[in-house]
Design goal:
Structural class: alpha/beta
Largest sheet: 10 strands, mixed
Helix content: 25-40%
Number of strands: 17
């Protein structure tokens, strides 16, 4: 997850999730003016602004009432180093493309949070020397874009690296201290019992450093889940982990807990429908949880017959839906009322696959190094690299380094 998410520290109030905070003025060269309430940053769905056929955020805002977006992902440079980039290839320092997206959103009264990390790629916590230099790299992102919110998406493979996680948590604490009012979320993998061993070690690292973000969010998908009941069960179990780790009571733990779902078909073939999202939303609001988000807006639209073949896509959900159906649950979590929905479209039958097309690219080789934009063929499909990769076989997963370009 895919990849989130004020300097409140350990004294975050139990009522934080219900009310948000007062708007903060931020006069800077980034174009930021006034922050939204924290509740909007807590509701911001993920958007890849440079990949996976980015949708128009202004159109989403008009159709749903959404005000906040979680932009993904900031990584270390693919070739190494301790400076922030988008996706490992586009330096933040010289960026104009993402800045333009942010300006469009802010011109309509919205705002963004930026997510760092995610699944795959090299993270700054892995390449920077210590927490201070990691924080300095992230501060460049906060300063350039005038951010009021930031998300640390700590998952595979980085969260298996003890030193890297120490750097990331230390950096998050420094940023929280140096940017009063900054909304900070930490997102990690979800399991049926809440989160796995590495997720629990990350929580213990946060405890040892005395760091308390606005929330710790889990991603209950890609782990044998089946609909909303399995997800709310994982959230209940994660709440118990937060209680035992930090010594919080149940209400305080929920006020520091978040949900990050995956709309439609997950990477492992699980399905999460609009009804599932409504059930989890009811659970989140009913327990005064701090965050409700999902991966991703790029996928919040119905697949066309040509690409809705029962596999996960980075650009559509593989379920029957109207465009931006899932975004409306985020709007509801923020406390707003989305416009009335149009009727659910008639399901499109899954087409019978046609014979392979022509024009296969050069065959993928495990020993070769590929960078963003390189094209190969593998298993009778053409693939395009999203970022630097080596010895990672092309596969139709939303979070991997390869984008499926279709049969060849």
């Amino acid at each position: 997850m895919r990849p989130l998410r004020a300097c409140l520290g350990a004294a975050v109030a139990v009522t934080l999730a219900a009310a948000g905070t007062a708007a903060l003025v931020a006069g800077d060269a980034s174009g930021a003016t006034t922050a939204l309430s924290n509740r909007w940053y807590a509701a911001a769905p993920y958007l890849m602004p440079l990949d996976n056929d980015p949708p128009d955020p202004a159109a989403i805002m008009d159709a749903t009432g959404l005000k906040a977006f979680q932009l993904a992902f900031v990584l270390a440079p693919s070739g190494g180093g301790c400076s922030p980039t988008w996706g490992g290839t586009a330096p933040v320092s010289s960026d104009t493309a993402v800045q333009s997206v942010i300006s469009t959103i802010r011109a309509k009264g919205g705002d963004v949070s930026v997510s760092i990390g995610g699944y795959g790629g090299t993270k700054l916590g892995q390449t920077c020397a210590d927490a201070a230099s990691t924080a300095a790299a992230y501060q460049q992102v906060i300063t350039k874009y005038g951010l009021h919110a930031i998300d640390f998406d700590l998952e595979e493979p980085e969260y298996e690296n003890t030193a890297a996680i120490k750097n990331e948590i230390g950096a998050a604490k420094i940023l929280q201290q140096n940017n009063p009012g900054l909304y900070v979320s930490v997102t990690t993998a979800g399991t049926a019992d809440g989160t796995g061993w590495f997720g629990k070690q990350m929580l213990l690292e946060a405890k040892s450093q005395g760091f308390t973000p606005n929330n710790f969010s889990i991603m209950p998908f890609d782990g044998g889940f089946n609909g909303a009941a399995s997800q709310t069960g994982a959230l209940t179990n994660f709440n118990a982990i937060l209680q035992s780790t930090f010594g919080w009571d149940q209400a305080t733990a929920y006020a520091h807990e978040g949900f990050s779902g995956m709309n439609g078909r997950s990477d492992t073939g699980e399905y999460f429908t609009q009804a599932d999202f409504q059930t989890v939303l009811d659970y989140a609001t009913g327990h005064n949880m701090d965050r409700f988000t999902f991966w991703s807006l790029n996928r919040d639209r119905q697949c066309t017959p040509a690409d809705n073949g029962g596999r996960t896509s980075g650009t559509c959900s593989s379920v029957t839906q109207n465009s931006w159906d899932y975004a409306k649950y985020s709007v509801k979590f923020a406390g707003a009322t989305p416009p009335s929905s149009t009727p659910t479209p008639t399901p499109t039958p899954t087409p019978t696959p046609s014979g392979p097309a022509t024009g296969c690219k050069t065959a993928w080789k495990s020993a070769s190094v590929y960078v963003a934009g390189d094209e190969v063929s593998y298993n009778s499909h053409n693939w395009k690299a999203k970022w630097w990769t080596q010895n990672e076989a092309p596969a139709a997963t939303d979070w991997g380094p390869w984008q499926d370009e279709g049969a060849c």
